[in-house]
Amino acid sequence: MLAAHLPPLAASLFSLLAIGSLLLAFVMLGSRWLKDYLLAFAAQSWLIAILSAAIGYYGHFTELYLIAVLTAVFRGMILPWMILRVVDRLDVDRELQERLSASTSLVLGGLLTLFAFVVSTHLAQSLDLAGTVAVLALTVMLSMKLIGFLMLAVRGEAVSQVLGLLVLENGIFLGSQILIPGMPLLIELVILFDLLVVVACFGVLVRYLAVHAGATNARALRRLVG
């Protein structure tokens, strides 16, 4: 495994990029402004793109250079632009119906990160990877997945929920880059293009909600039943 045999400089770089991605997930969790979500998601995607290129360099996986470019273009530019168009057309700037305050959400996010660290430490010890960057990769991956699920649970706006889904997927993608960088290129490409389909369908759904339910809150879907 690449993560178990990294030089100190590479391990430090990977750790810095992974921690930066996790901090941006907390920025999204603690903010209520939709455009802040988009900026944080775009920055997070760019960090993951840089991480992919760095792993390609240190691990001699040339296909990861293509993945890095596609990640920066699709996740860092096209997806935020598509969602921004939907936000501008709906004229919704922030989360209107808060189920939890920002401070409470951040505390829960911190507890989930602590839980992810404990689980990752035990898992790394069982795989003889303790003391390597694999522990941090597992922690960040699980933390971002749990934060994504938390955003899906506590956010009401449809835009917020799709961004929670994208954060969850970013966590899986980041972890896979560090832990299993030899993943077949075709799988990576399928994941990237699937995200475009998800966001396109989301745009259609939100416009339908606005027209037929008079709201962009995900709970308005109940009015469409029957």
Structure description:
This protein has 226 residues and is mainly alpha-helical. It has one domain. 77% of the residues lie in helices and 0% in strands. Helix 2 (34-59) packs parallel to helix 6. The longest helix is centred in the middle third of the chain and has 28 residues, at 63-90. This is Hydrogenase-4 component E. InterPro entries: HyfE-like (IPR038730). Keywords: Cell membrane, Membrane, Transmembrane, Transmembrane helix. It is a multi-pass membrane protein.
Topology as H/E string? HHHHHHH
The tally of domains stands at 1
- Structural class comes to mainly alpha
Q: Segments where pLDDT lies below 50 for 5+ residues?
A: none
Mean pLDDT: 78
Largest sheet: none
Number of strands: 0
Give the percentage of residues in beta strands.
Answer: under 5%
Distance between the termini: 52 Å
As a percent range, the share of helical residues equals over 70%
- Cα-atom Rg, whole angstroms? 18 Å
| Number of helical segments with 4 or more residues | 7
Shape label: globular
Descriptors for this entry?
226 residues, mainly alpha, 7 helices, globular, cell membrane, Hydrogenase-4 component E
Write the layout of secondary structure elements.
Blueprint: H1 8-30, H2 34-59, H3 63-90, H4 102-126, H5 133-154, H6 158-179, H7 185-212
Write a brief structural summary:
With 226 residues, this protein is mostly helical.
